[in-house]
Amino acid sequence: MEVKTINTFIQPNQSATFTQDYNRVALEIIGRNPLKGEVRISGAKNSALAILAGTLLCSQECRLTNVPTLKDVQFMGQVLSALGVKIEQNQDVWDIDPRQLKDAQAPYELVSQLRASFFVIGPILTRLGVAHVPLPGGCAIGSRPVDLHVRGLQAMGADVLIEHGVVNASVKGNKKRLQGANIFLDYPSVGATETIMMAATLAEGETIIQNAAQEPEIVDLANFCNSMGAKIKGAGTNTITIEGVKSLHSTDYAIIPDRIEAGTFLVAGAITHSPITLTAVNHEHLIPVIAKLEEIGVKVARESETSLKVLPGELRGTDIETSPHPGFPTDMQAQFMALLTVSEGNSLITETVFENRLRHVAELKRMGADIKVKGNCAMVRGIYRLSGAPVMATDLRASAALVIAALAADGTTIVQGLQHLDRGYENIEQKLRSLGAKINRIQYQS
Ligand code: EPU
């Protein structure tokens, strides 16, 4: 097959769907080049998605900064526009005018492409008293139900009817606002915590969420809402208290750094034995990731308040079990698996958050990795070196894992399925190239 290097980044907003335009595009990575230098980490995808949904709560204009340029974020922007919100984008700065939020109906074509767009249900319902949002459906990593979101809204006095694939929610009876409630989540779901927290900001009375998710993105969303006048306490712990207010005001808010992008670059440094520096990071958000790297034999030094340096070392195997924050993040499991394939000894990886998040195993095995899967566990036996091969990304973090594996592999790896990578990594190939990686986006010719 003939390949042609095109070397240009496909802008995330150039295609209408995730699958279009990607059939013949791949990354060509020539492995075993040491990396060096500095890389700046972008704003957090998962914060940006929740906070964009959160702008619907506000009846004045808002400015967001440090918004990453990603396909998922562009899609969320399209969902908001379809609801009547005006958005002006200038690089990482988004000026958002949600005053004209008029439509309580989120469009299926958009929600079906981006699961996080279901998160608009809380803000729309609490602001307009009614919301119609299509069920997002499953995705590559699991069935991903929204029952906890729905039960939370019901506890706050919403009537919810799921019909023809759409969740129709309305404030019950003659009450104009949702009512504060005590809500215990069966599982500390990130999305359900965000939905309930947003809905509660404009509800009447106090809402308490117990067994809430504690991820840094929850804290970021709470800080954003509080900057608009919401009264949220306890975000970042397992109990969040929200005192409802009547309306929220304008804000200018900067999104936190992406801890998963940062973790991905730390692992890239570790696997290539390269002392790279990450800037614009928050150390606190990376504690579980840095702890595992240190167990594996890689030190991570704090260079300043907002920068970290990888101090590479001999890699040795370890065990990893994913769990909600402050546990080891499921969004770093695939990248660590890539690292452990070339770490001496045996490692056991247990995925507990999503039921189908080991699909990258088959692709890593194509590169020579020695991995056996049983249920939600993967046993990795460290080998001396991976070898480049054509591989297919199966989801966002799997695509990052394959890129990381390719950086350390002998020869050339061709990574396809880039529609996943572009959802969540801003300019990853430019960033890696600036560190010295041999990586190019290529287009296949038939
Ligand atoms: N769950 C339910 N019912 C619900 C909600 C969740 O059973 O109503 C289950 C899910 O099926 C899953 C588990 O709970 O098994 C965790 O799901 P959670 O709701 O915590 O995840 P999410 O909100 O759907 C966010 C991130 C994910 C990240 C998870 C866990 C966004 C947009 N997505 O998803 O990010 O893996 O939290 O930390 O915030 C990624 O960036 O690659 C990614 C998948």
UniProtKB/TrEMBL annotation:
One Gene Ontology cellular component annotation held by this UniProt entry: cytoplasm
Domain of life: Bacteria
Residue ranges occupied by any Enolpyruvate transferase domain in the UniProt entry: 32-432
Location within or outside the cell: Cytoplasm
Binding site for UDP-N-acetyl-alpha-D-glucosamine: 115, 144-148, 331, 353
Catalytic activity: phosphoenolpyruvate + UDP-N-acetyl-alpha-D-glucosamine = UDP-N-acetyl-3-O-(1-carboxyvinyl)-alpha-D-glucosamine + phosphate
Coiled coil: 418-445
Catalytic site: 139 (proton donor)
GO molecular function, one term: UDP-N-acetylglucosamine 1-carboxyvinyltransferase activity
Keyword hit for Electron transport: no
Enzyme Commission (EC) number: 2.5.1.7
Signal peptide from the UniProt entry: none
Residue numbers of 2-(S-cysteinyl)pyruvic acid O-phosphothioketal PTMs: 139
GO biological process: cell division; cell wall organization; peptidoglycan biosynthetic process; regulation of cell shape; UDP-N-acetylgalactosamine biosynthetic process
Pathway(s) it belongs to: Cell wall biogenesis; peptidoglycan biosynthesis
PANTHER family, per database record: UDP-N-ACETYLGLUCOSAMINE 1-CARBOXYVINYLTRANSFERASE
NCBIfam families, per the entry: murA, PRK09369.1
Function statement: Cell wall formation. Adds enolpyruvyl to UDP-N-acetylglucosamine.
UniProt protein name: UDP-N-acetylglucosamine 1-carboxyvinyltransferase
Species, as recorded: Cyanobacterium stanieri (strain ATCC 29140 / PCC 7202)
Gene of this entry: murA
